[in-house]
Amino acid sequence: MPGKVILVTGGTGLVGKAIEQVSKTESLPDEKWVFVSSADADLTSEESTMALFEKHHPTHVIHLAAMVGGLFRNLKYNLDFFRNNMKINDNVLYCCYKTGVEKCVSCLSTCIFPDKTTYPIDETMIHNGPPHDSNFGYSYAKRMIDVLNKGYNTQHGCKFTSVIPTNVFGPHDNFNLQDGHVIPGLINKVYCSKKENTPFVIWGTGSPRRQFIYSLDLARLFLWVLREYDESSPIILSVGEDDEVSIKDAAEMVVEAFEFKGEVVYDTSKSDGQFKKTANNGKLRERLPDFEFTSIKQAIKETVQWFIDNYETARK
Ligand code: NAP
Ligand code: GDP
């Protein structure tokens, strides 16, 4: 008889699918996992959100559902990112409180850090100044999760916390060129360039730097946070500062994984976005010194293989 019912909002997305895969082997006997999508409930509606909670009676929630996108989707829809995510987060956390959920782990992002800052950035700095203008809507809405967590914690004693992952990629990502993040975008582009014998076009200068995390590594860390991390303040889930790579480095790894031999060009008329958001993973390392991240090369290889194997059904 499961003692814990763990509801995962956004359970059909990149991170949700990775948690589903990891939970299949690492689930404990007293845990029942429920993965839901927008087809189960539109979380921008308080009524639908409450109906979902009343249906499943979760004791624990991993809250992933959000309007998500790469730089170019954010540039176009800042207002929608703000409004949709504010509604979703307010509804989910309110329903967690009203229905007595024991613990809720929500998801922030290193994209929401201040633009003008010293590096590396740590968990204490997320509210220290305006975010990069390219994704201000997403960023301010995500920052409010931390405000809500603090409010529910201080006013009602709720165990609500959040994690701050860097740029995530892996199987089940959104490979759409306009909407998705950089690695799935590069993978889709090289796939097409190889098939059609056309140049592979990387947007921007290729010099911005990012710490990438493989979705399956992030999923294993989520399970640890759910079970072991008991602070209400957020924790950065990231590879180390030395593992930060340029967009050019990442593009070269995609080229290598496909064994692509064609022409590679940079379209510098496209935005570079924020130059870097280097995050310090010291808080994580203090608690989990032995956690092993998959190398970015290996993770890109596996994701490329997944995309080739699932081309017909992949989001693109
Ligand atoms: P994703 O692949 O785009 O998945 C988004 C999920 O949210 C889907 O399951 C989607 O359901 C659900 N959703 C969206 N709008 C909804 C609504 N109104 N009601 C109910 N469900 C809704 O996103 P992801 O990359 O897995 O991101 C998961 C979390 O990680 C998000 O909170 C995101 O901000 C955070 N994060 C992502 C990255 C990254 O690089 N991807 C980096 C840092 C943090 P449908 O499938 O039905 O649409
Ligand atoms: P960010 O990490 O939040 O800025 O978002 P992205 O994952 O979208 O990464 C954006 C960075 O990758 C910028 O420097 C873009 O110029 C660069 N980039 C290069 N090619 C692409 C592409 O095909 N898609 C996306 N989304 N970004 C690209």
From TrEMBL:
<comment type="pathway">
    <text>Nucleotide-sugar biosynthesis; GDP-L-fucose biosynthesis via de novo pathway; GDP-L-fucose from GDP-alpha-D-mannose: step 2/2.</text>
</comment>
<keyword id="KW-0560">Oxidoreductase</keyword>
<dbReference type="InterPro" id="IPR036291">
    <property type="entry name" value="NAD(P)-bd_dom_sf"/>
</dbReference>
<protein>
    <recommendedName>
        <fullName>GDP-L-fucose synthase</fullName>
        <ecNumber>1.1.1.271</ecNumber>
    </recommendedName>
</protein>
<comment type="function">
    <text>Catalyzes the two-step NADP-dependent conversion of GDP-4-dehydro-6-deoxy-D-mannose to GDP-fucose, involving an epimerase and a reductase reaction.</text>
</comment>
<comment type="similarity">
    <text>Belongs to the NAD(P)-dependent epimerase/dehydratase family. Fucose synthase subfamily.</text>
</comment>
<keyword id="KW-0521">NADP</keyword>
<dbReference type="Pfam" id="PF01370">
    <property type="entry name" value="Epimerase"/>
</dbReference>
<dbReference type="InterPro" id="IPR001509">
    <property type="entry name" value="Epimerase_deHydtase"/>
</dbReference>
<dbReference type="InterPro" id="IPR028614">
    <property type="entry name" value="GDP_fucose/colitose_synth"/>
</dbReference>
<keyword id="KW-0413">Isomerase</keyword>
<feature type="domain" description="NAD-dependent epimerase/dehydratase">
    <location>
        <begin position="6"/>
        <end position="240"/>
    </location>
</feature>
